[in-house]
Write a structure and sequence with these properties.
With 495 residues, this protein is mainly alpha-helical. It contains 25 helices and no strands. The protein folds into three domains: 260 residues; 83 residues, Serine Threonine Protein Phosphatase 5, Tetratricopeptide repeat, CATH 1.25.40; 102 residues, Serine Threonine Protein Phosphatase 5, Tetratricopeptide repeat, CATH 1.25.40.
């Protein structure tokens, strides 16, 4: 099992991928292929239960490479799902012990792969719990070890899967962070990463499904291929309805693709019971979905349950911001004020959602109710309702610049997502023209979306100009993700 390394300080920006729960997989390993993946039937069964998020059924003894791999997958899953800082020291110590045991074993593809995977798990644990320098070094060790495994065992496809993932993410980092990884000797390459991932995803091996999932999620996020990712998640979830990880991935894809009703149905149909790991983040996702629908009381209940169960520091500010929105939009001013104050009381600003919440708190400029409702409706996939809401918005001489920018941007997004790009284009352009150098995300996002539209039309020069425009904005709430997408789009265009 692998996951995508988080980015903070030296590695900022990939933490959100950790909350795809190690990214992975969703099926027990298939048939054994001789030396390629020497999991025993007992190890394969235990590994499947790790992926089902049923830890009590996944405990396994043994000191061979297969057993150590499964044990480490279980421990890192429990740590990152729980976000329990009290588990951190013991988890890292156990990883060090497993690595020492692996050093005593005969060299082979599984032994090399397991050592590199455990080191990658350790890097994620260290970064998530604030030990960024140690995490950087562990990531370097994992990367170089996986490179060596691919050179020694070029037919061992699981190593290509993990190496390809790391190459892609390091290669796709914004320039402001790549220098640090280059300093560690980790240059990365989008092209090499995709090549290795495609090899691992299109040829049979025991982790082929995992490779397919990673590739599908990358392509959905960065290359605008949402239907393929959603179809894969739906198929796998139907095949394994007992798998909580797959239910999470399906719900996440539906939410990202603005299919609120279907995402809530997936949430309510998820497997539950005492055997499963508590997954508090599901409640936070459900709270968002209910907020999109205007079910404010239900949204508040889900976020309060999330905060009660969750022990981590990420998404806390975002949860209080969403609690504020639900209370404010329902007319509960005293509760809204309390939730607003709590945004600043804890949590970290690593994730863009938390950064946005903190910026809202510090900005002190009140939100506009119509624009806020329209944003939530668009996020939920209720585009026509959003356009009706926007019709009620009226500007005056006192209307702040932020609101003047948000209105055409929201209208453009609704029309774009309704399949009316010709109506969306002039509104995106208007947003850019009005914005100047204002530090809001509406103009850079408009430039990014115009780039995609002109790219689809085959107008490469115009698309390139808009992607470069998106990169040119020096500061806004979603700069890292916007820059990464624009940069990858430029690579597709031949930059």
């Amino acid at each position: 099992m692998v996951f995508l390394p988080s980015i903070h300080g030296g590695f900022r920006r990939r933490v959100q991928w950790l909350f795809r729960l190690l990214l992975l997989v969703a099926a027990r390993p298939a048939a054994l292929h001789g030396e390629a993946l020497a999991l025993t039937p007992a190890q394969a069964k235990a590994y499947a239960e790790v992926l089902n998020l049923r830890p009590a059924r996944a405990h396994l003894t043994g000191t061979d490479a297969g057993a150590l791999l499964v044990q480490d997958c279980l421990s890192i899953t429990e740590l990152l799902v729980s976000q329990d800082a009290g588990r951190y020291e013991a988890t890292v110590a156990a990883q060090d012990a497993r690595l020492k045991l692996l050093e005593q074993q005969p060299a082979g593809p599984l032994q090399a792969y397991t050592a590199a995977e455990i080191r990658l798990h350790q890097a994620a644990a260290q970064v998530v719990f604030g030990h960024e320098v140690q995490g950087a070094w562990s990531l370097r060790q994992s990367y170089l070890a996986m490179q060596q495994a691919v050179r020694r065992y070029p037919q061992f496809l699981p190593a290509r899967k993990t190496l390809g993932m790391l190459q892609f993410f390091i290669g796709s980092l914004p320039e402001s962070y790549r220098w640090f990884l280059k300093l560690l000797g980790l240059p990365g390459s989008v092209e090499a990463g995709l090549h290795n991932l495609h090899l691992a995803a299109t040829q049979p091996h025991d982790f082929q499904l995992e490779s397919r999932l990673i590739l599908a999620l990358l392509e959905e996020t960065y290359y605008k291929k949402p239907e393929a990712a959603l179809t894969l998640m739906q198929t796998l979830q139907r095949q394994q309805p007992q798998n909580l990880l797959l239910s999470y991935l399906l719900m996440s894809q539906l939410k990202k693709q603005h299919r609120t009703d279907a995402a809530l149905a997936a949430y309510r149909a998820r497997p539950t019971g005492p055997d499963y790991l508590p997954l508090p983040y599901l409640h936070h996702m459900a709270a968002d979905l209910l907020l999109y629908q205007g079910q404010y009381a239900a949204s508040q209940r889900e976020n309060l349950q999330f905060l009660q169960q969750y022990q981590g520091q990420h998404y806390r500010k975002d949860a209080y911001f969403k609690l504020y929105l639900a209370a404010w939009l329902s007319g509960a001013a005293p509760a809204a004020g309390q939730y607003r104050r709590r945004i600043g009381s804890g949590g970290r600003t690593v994730l863009e959602e938390d950064t946005y919440a903190q910026r809202f708190l510090e900005d002190k400029q009140p939100l506009n109710a119509q624009l806020t409702r329209a944003r939530l409706q668009i996020d939920g996939g209720y585009y026509r309702e959003a356009l009706t809401t926007l019709d009620a918005f009226q500007t005056t001489a006192a209307t702040p610049l932020r609101d003047r920018l948000e209105e055409p941007y929201r209208r453009a997004r609704a029309l774009h997502l309704l399949g009316r790009p010709d109506s969306a284009r002039p509104l995106y352009a208007r947003t850019i023209a009005l914005a100047g150098s204002a530090p809001y995300y509406f103009a850079p996002q408009s430039a990014l979306q115009l780039g995609y539209l002109y790219q689809l039309d085959g107008q490469k020069a115009t698309a390139r100009a808009y992607f470069q425009k998106a990169l040119s904005y020096s500061r806004h709430e979603y700069k890292n993700s916007t820059d990464t997408k624009a940069k990858l789009a430029l690579k597709e265009l031949g930059e």
